[in-house]
User: Fold this.
Amino acid sequence: MTTISIRLPDEILHEVDKIAKDLKVSRTEYLRRAILAMNRKVHEDSRRNRIMALSNRVRKESMRINAEFSEVEHDPEY
Assistant:
């Protein structure tokens, strides 16, 4: 396991310490969990954005196809 050193504003560190104490975990464990939670959120947000982009592409294509069917449906020659 690698050790890192970070600088935090005092108010953030005080909040970290308070929450860690309330959860009955060490500061290190709390920060480890916070980093893991942030990593999960970043991955979930990225996945959601990719899905939304693909959904929009599919929606546009579906609308185009629906418009073509609508034209055929109302064309007396078909």
In short: The two ends are 71 Å apart (CA to CA).
